[in-house]
Amino acid sequence: MVKFSKEATEWLVDVLKRLDLDAAQLQKLSDDLTDKEFAEAIAENPELVESWKELDKLGVYDAVRKNPEFLKQFDASSRKLYSTHTPSGAMKGIAIGHTYTKHGSHNTKTLIYQAKNGTTPQGQWLDDLAAEDLISKHLDQLGQGARDIPIPDNMKGIGRIFENGTGKILEPTHIRLVPSGSGVSTAYPINETIESLRPLGVYKP
Question: Given its phi and psi angles, is residue 145 left (phi above 0), alpha (psi -120 to 50 degrees) or beta?
Fold first, then answer.
């Protein structure tokens, strides 16, 4: 059991008063606080309970709602603490469409909402700069249209996919590149178990 400091306890009480959780939500929060990593995150920053409440209302998987790292990312997205990535590496000066405005690491809240309430999975980059490098290496394969590029296990941390209807988080198996002139109109991670593949490209390390 994680022990909250006096300051953290008072802060948490203030947050709970402000959020006005009902009895069922308070019981669920109490149950979730038996998870050590989740409790440690709340003890460090009780304001995360606001994101917890929103994710609970959205009806995401328990594992997502209680994931400390995801809670922090969702909270940062809600508060707009990070701006859209502007290419500064391999894709600088090349068309990128809505690769980052929609699928960037800053857009967690919007993407999980779209996936949970929609019919289409939503891919998100977690490392925007690494994504630039990966995309740029495969632009020469887009002469005949969009391509899905298989990625190796050691690249799967570059992004994630929110499953449509559930918000469940999946690892990417491919990245989808949709061409536009000399660049792309969009590029994002996908998972082949929940999305039909387009013509395949060849991965270049």
Answer: left
Instruction: Write phi, then psi, for 29 (nearest 5 degrees).
Output: -65, -45
Q: Can you read off the two tokens belonging to residue 151?
A: 């990625």
Burial class (CB in 10 A: 0-12, 13-18, 19+), 52: buried
State the Cα–Cα distance between residues 13 and 65, nearest whole angstrom.
20
pLDDT digits (tens, 9 = 90+) for 142-186: 999 999 999 999 999 999 999 999 999 999 999 999 999 889 999
Question: What are the 10-residue block averages of pLDDT along the chain, 205 residues in total?
Answer: 92 96 96 97 97 96 95 95 93 96 97 97 97 97 96 97 96 97 95 98 97
Output the six-digit token pair for 68.
Answer: 């400390």
pTM: 0.92
Strand order in the sheet with 159-162: 122-125, 159-162, 169-170
